[in-house]
Every structure is written in structure tokens, then in C-alpha cells.
Design goal:
The protein is α+β, with helices and mostly antiparallel strands. Helices cover 43% and strands 15% of the residues. It has ten helices and ten strands. The protein has a five-stranded antiparallel sheet, with helices on one face. Strands 6-8-9 form a three-stranded antiparallel sheet, covered by helices on one side. A hairpin with a 2-residue loop joins strand 8 and strand 9. Helix 8 runs antiparallel to helix 10. The protein is globular.
């Protein structure tokens, strides 16, 4: 399995040269009349557009009847097989009436190749709703039931091609990517790489016995849209195989009393839906650390993309890696404390 697609260069050429005409050409392949209005949406990873239809179309409750979303996938990141696994997972979830956004199928396919740019793309219904920074008690419970339903269906099958969440893929491979790109010549960066060599064997015993299943992978508040029909989980671009705890800590990552109280309410609703009597939230600091490392590698592998240089100008500064080194040491201390107590 190709767990990660390496560092990209020339293959992203057409990705950066997409025009409104390319977007219209791709959307028109669906066979529906368009109004001609296209708006680029804020997305660093892929190229995403809001496309208006010339007439209304019934996608169901919670969706716009007049607009669709067109997504061009960043070349080099996912293989065709990996994207199709994401689509099949979404389609299965909708078949079980789980509120997610599945791709639109036409010509018997959900994934299509744009002939001129050679980019993979897909069409999706546009969700009508809003994001929430703060959740009320009943909304916390709704979110718990929602991810519980996703996990119930996720446990019924498996991924053969998607990324697996484990110390090898999120620490070892990401360390190799960082070492290859060498974003900065600074002693803190070199110490950071050395610490990652120690981190991986520390984490592997914690993951060796875990049950792995299909997950959303990035279940935070920005990926829950609150619609007239209730909460809807969006953006399965990072769906993967891993322990269920990955989808259970991001919504309430804080360590203060109020965050932990909200997390307990969320987990109670989750357990009621899944009948999972035990989840190991002691994995939180390990999962948090892996996400921190993965984030740095994510930036490094896209550093030739001018948009990443604009959004993360501090990435190649000494101060950035000084702080990253401090944060990594703190996280490793927390993990060591837990292992020292025999609480894997």
C-alpha cells in the first residue's frame, strides 16, 4: 500500500493553473445546465468550487437545491483507489441514512478525470448550514451520536488502500519527509528529528494491540455542519483506518474542567449509540503528538506550493522549530508519564 505519496513538484503544474473554464467543463460533464456562476472556496489542500445550477435539483433536506461543490484533488496525494474507498465509505453511510455528504454519481462513477488537466475530480451536493464554535449540551450529545453512527458502519468493513493511523505512518514516514525537505538549517530542527527517532518506539507498544477500523479521521468542529436536519459530518478527505479514539478527542481537545465535562457528555452519547463500554482516552496525548508531527510533514511536502508559503511563512524560521521542539519534549514527557504508570 502506498501510505504516502512523497514530495510533489511538476505533477501539480495544472493544479495551480485551473481556470473557471476548466471548472465549468468538469461540472458540465454531469449533464445539468449551469448558470455560469463559479466561486472558488477556501481550501489549501485541494481546489474546491461552488458552482451554481441553472435550475433547482432536489438533493434532500439540508442541501442547497441550486448549487453543487466541485472538488479537484491535489495530484500526488491520494491514488485513485484511495479516493474511491473514501467515496464508497460515504455512499455506504448515506445508504444507512447517516448524515454525511456523498459524491454525486454520474456515468456510473463518482470519480472523474478531467481530460485537459488530467486531474481527478468529484461533484458533491452543497450543504446548507453553519459551523459552531460552542456547542450546547444537546448538540454535544448529537455530535456523539453522529460519530457513533459513523463508527458503527465503519466497523462493518475495512479499507485496503487508505492511510493507517499508527506510529510508522505518522511518525517514521513523516520524519523521513521532513528530513528529505529540510525546511530550515537550524539545530532545533535536527534535535526535533532525533526526538522523533525516540518517539516512534515509545508509541508502538501503545498501538500494537488496538482494534482498528474505518474512521472519519478529522472529526473536529470545523467538519460538523449544523443544518435544518441536524448535524452533518463533512470532509472525509482524511478518512483512514485507526483506533476509534482518533475521532473522539479532537472535538474537545482541552484539558480544563469544562472541556473534560463536555467530553464526558459527548462520550456518554457515543457509548449509548455504539454500545462500546470502554474507550481508551489515555491515547489522547499520543494521538495529539502524532497529529502535531503529521501537520509539520503536511506543510513540508507542499512547500513548493506558493499558497503554503503565504499561509505558513514562519515554517522555515528558527523560532518555529524552537517552539516545535519544546512542544514535542512536553508531549513525550506526558506519554512517558502514562507509560510509567502502566497505562497504555
Amino acid at each position: 500500500m502506498n501510505q504516502n505519496q512523497g514530495i510533489w513538484g511538476a505533477e501539480t503544474k495544472h493544479f495551480h493553473l485551473l481556470t473557471p473554464d476548466h471548472v465549468m467543463e468538469a461540472a458540465e460533464l454531469w449533464g445539468k445546465r449551469l448558470s455560469g456562476r463559479v466561486m472558488a472556496l477556501n481550501s489549501l489542500e485541494n481546489r474546491v468550487y461552488d458552482v451554481e445550477l441553472a435550475s433547482s435539483y432536489d438533493f434532500g433536506k439540508g442541501f442547497s437545491p441550486t448549487n453543487i461543490i466541485l472538488k479537484f484533488y491535489r495530484p500526488g496525494r491520494w491514488t485513485k483507489e484511495q479516493i474511491l474507498e473514501e467515496h464508497r465509505f460515504l455512499t455506504t453511510l448515506t445508504e444507512f441514512e447517516v448524515p454525511v455528504v456523498a459524491p454525486i454519481e454520474f456515468n456510473d462513477e463518482t470519480l472523474h478525470l478531467h481530460p485537459e488537466t488530467n486531474l481527478w475530480f468529484a461533484l458533491f451536493p452543497k450543504v446548507q448550514g453553519r459551523l459552531k464554535d460552542e456547542l450546547m449540551k444537546d448538540e454535544i450529545e448529537q455530535a456523539g451520536r453522529l460519530i457513533g453512527r459513523i463508527h458503527n458502519i465503519g466497523s462493518m468493513g475495512s479499507f485496503a488502500h487508505r492511510l493507517a493511523l499508527n506510529p510508522h505512518t505518522f511518525i517514521d514516514i513523516n520524519r523521513e519527509a521532513l528530513a528529505q525537505t529540510q525546511p530550515v538549517e537550524h539545530i532545533s530542527f535536527q534535535h526535533y528529528l532525533k526526538l522523533l527517532e525516540q518517539l516512534s518506539p515509545m508509541l508502538k507498544p501503545m498501538f500494537s494491540h488496538l482494534t482498528i477500523q474505518r474512521l472519519h479521521g478529522d472529526f473536529h468542529r470545523g467538519n460538523i455542519v449544523w443544518t435544518s436536519a441536524g448535524p452533518m459530518a463533512v470532509d472525509f478527505d482524511d478518512c483512514l483506518s485507526g483506533p476509534v479514539e482518533q475521532d473522539l478527542w479532537l472535538l474537545f481537545p482541552g484539558k480544563d474542567h469544562y472541556s473534560l465535562e463536555d467530553r464526558d457528555r459527548f462520550l456518554s452519547a457515543y457509548k449509548e449509540m455504539t454500545r462500546k463500554d470502554h474507550v481508551n482516552m489515555g491515547l489522547t496525548e499520543a494521538l495529539r503528538t502524532m497529529r502535531m508531527v503529521h501537520f509539520n510533514a503536511w506543510i513540508a511536502k507542499r512547500w513548493d506550493d506558493h499558497s503554503f508559503k503565504r499561509v505558513f511563512p514562519q515554517f522555515t524560521s528558527a523560532n518555529y522549530w524552537d517552539q516545535e521542539l519544546i512542544d514535542l519534549r512536553v508531549q513525550m514527557g506526558l506519554i512517558q508519564d502514562r507509560l510509567g504508570m502502566g497505562l497504555e
